[in-house]
Design a protein that fits this description.
With 204 residues, the protein is an alpha+beta fold. It has a single domain, classed as Roll (Pnp Oxidase, Chain A), CATH 2.30.110. The protein is 22% helix and 36% strand. It has five helices and eight strands. The protein has a six-stranded antiparallel barrel with strand order 1-2-3-6-5-4. Helix 1 packs across helix 2.
């Protein structure tokens, strides 16, 4: 089945009525991913990003979803340019993402390709819009993952921060959704091929 465009409002209405058509489900997932920081909770704000290290072993860490563009099929995350994940992505862009809703009963899982955004204008706009506590993550002089004597040592040297600020763009090639909240558990898969998403139900 090829997922065709429908309005977010129509998808949410169908969702609330309990009709789980695959195209509605796909639109709803992206609508939830795109919920900005604010009073409405994004159930998938925190994700586990997995990359491959120099020995080919998977390495996972928690990242914060900053933006989602449903039309482009892209997710955006902030990262320290000096971090291992940025180095690993530059060598091998294949990544995986997993997010679990706060209730622990709905999961979204993706595989795709990651790139570092090099558009300086895009980076500057995101940096200017970032909160102070977010910018502070990039201002300390220590390299992420560096062995230090105590937590305070990481903040002994304060820098501008923007020079370390990177944006990771991930374009999923595959997306899986799992819902354990209902008597009949549901699992669906969406695969992107030549710009179109193909969908199917899977056994949970």
């Amino acid at each position: 089945m090829i997922v065709r465009g429908r309005s977010i409002a129509a998808a949410l209405v169908s969702w609330n009525m309990g009709f789980f058509m695959l195209d509605d489900l796909f639109q709803t997932i992206w609508a939830q991913l795109a919920i900005p920081v604010g009073p409405v909770r994004n159930p998938y704000r925190l994700m586990q990003l997995s990359t491959l290290d120099e020995q080919g072993w998977p390495v996972s860490r928690t990242v914060v979803l900053r933006d989602a563009d449903a039309r482009a099929g892209a997710l955006y995350f902030y990262a320290d340019r000096r971090s291992a994940k940025c180095t690993q992505i530059a060598v091998d862009p294949r990544v995986a993402l997993t997010a679990l809703s706060p209730c622990g009963l709905t999961q979204v899982r993706m595989e795709g390709l990651a790139t570092l955004v090099e558009d300086i204008g895009h980076r500057r706009r995101c940096w200017s819009a970032a909160r102070d506590k977010t910018q502070a993550l990039f201002r300390h002089g220590a390299v992420p993952g560096q062995v230090i004597e105590s937590p305070e040592v990481a903040y002994e040297r304060i820098q501008g921060g923007f020079e370390h600020f990177a944006i990771i763009c991930i374009e999923p090639r595959a997306l899986e959704w799992l819902d354990l909240t209902r008597p009949v558990q549901q699992r669906a898969r969406f695969l992107r091929h030549e710009g179109l998403w193909q969908s199917s139900w899977l056994a949970p």
